[in-house]
Amino acid sequence: MIPSLTETVIAGVITMLSNGIGGLPFVFVREFPIIIARLGWSIAGGMMLSASVFNLIIPGVADGGITPVAIGVLIGTVLFGIAAERIGHSNISMSGLSGESSRRIALVLGTMFFHSFPEGLAIGVAFGSGEVGLGLLMTVAISIHNIPEGIAVSLPLRAGGVSGWKCVGWAIFSGIPQPLASIPAYLAVIAFRPILPYAFGVAAGAMFYLVLSEMIPESRANEAQRQSSALAAMAGFLGMMFLQNIITI
């Protein structure tokens, strides 16, 4: 029996809400010392790089080969570079922030928002395939994976002075594409299957650009923080690797 579209959307909503769990600890974190805030950028950056490799690039290559993923990475990097340039020349104000801090946080949210599309497609494809077990497994795996992603979104927001509950809200907002993208993927699973490697690559390219151009440089405000920034980024990367290993056991 093929799962219904309603069940597919419910699965997407569950994975979307799981992003907010990652933001809940920041409701109780009142203030970030500047050193901790900068380390937060490094940790979040490492987590995002790890998610790009283990949840986007590797599955994309396994599904469609290196070429479509590489093309997607190139497209994602170029598109996000253009978007970052446009945002850099605009006057953005959000959540009580303005200037460079607001611009950088907008880039983080934009990247994670786009990153959620392939996850929504994966949910739709899994349920549309008619394999109920695969759909449930995909829902559980993505939901668990989205908790540290919610942390990755919330870290720079809270460090920038955004309130804890707003961090939760923005974390959930970054997962909105998951239930939305699951609908067309479910309805046209055969048509969407071939573009998944490209979509994974685009999201990975955008995330790599964000981390390397914005998050890591922000964490290295001075020469003394170079080593701590590198160590924090590796801690985030390895932490996400550990979580991925738990999910796939």
Helical residue percent band: over 70%
Low-confidence stretches: none
**Main sheet characteristics:** 2 strands, antiparallel
How do the strands line up in the largest sheet? 1-2
**Rg over alpha carbons:** 18 Å
Mean pLDDT metric: 78
Which structural class fits the helix and strand makeup? Answer: mainly alpha
Beta percentage is under 5%
H/E element order: HHHEEHHHHHHH
Distance between the termini: 27 Å
Morphology call: globular
Q: Can you tell me the number of structural domains?
A: 1
Number of helices: 10
- What's the total number of strands? 2
Main attributes?
249 residues, two-stranded antiparallel ribbon, 10 helices, 2 strands, 82% helix
Summed up:
By secondary structure, the protein is mainly alpha-helical.
Report on this structure:
With 249 residues, the chain is mainly α. The protein has one domain. 82% of the residues lie in helices and 2% in strands. The protein contains ten helices and two strands, in the order αααββααααααα. The chain has helices at residues 5-23, 34-64, 66-88, 99-128, 132-159, 164-173, 177-187, 189-192, 196-219, 226-248, and strands spanning 93-94, 97-98. Strands 1-2 form a two-stranded antiparallel ribbon. Strand 1 (93-94) and strand 2 (97-98) form a beta hairpin. Helix 2 packs antiparallel against helix 3 (66-88). The mean pLDDT is 78.
